[in-house]
Amino acid sequence: MTSPGNRPIPELFSEAVGQLGKLIGNEFELARAELSEKANQAGRAAGLIGAGAVLFIPALVLLLMAMAAMLISSGFSAVAAYFITGAGAAFVSGTLIAIGLNRLSGDALKPTMTLEQVERDKNAAKEMVR
Fold this sequence. Notes:
By secondary structure, the chain is mainly alpha-helical. The protein has four helices and no strands. The protein has one domain (8-129). The protein starts with 8 loop residues before the first helix and ends with a helix. The model has no long low-confidence stretch (mean pLDDT 84).
């Protein structure tokens, strides 16, 4: 049996290539798992957006009707009351949409763990070649 310091270069190179192949396989497995997790996160975010929109519509209609009626009874004209309530509703819906889109942004879904691990592995591979 030869000691690690006396092993032939082709054997060492072959072992390094084999380890690099295993490492790349592990990286693909990690990337697949992380991307699956990010896809689930995106699906949950889309589900929350959809559920929020569906449940918010009837409640919003009732609230807007009540607010417009309150403004009209306070002395506002019907046109002004409906405009004010419509603007408020537009603001709330825009805020909800912005929050949902933020959760679906590229940065939120980027596989950061995989990218960091690939960078570490690239550096380790460079060290093995030296």
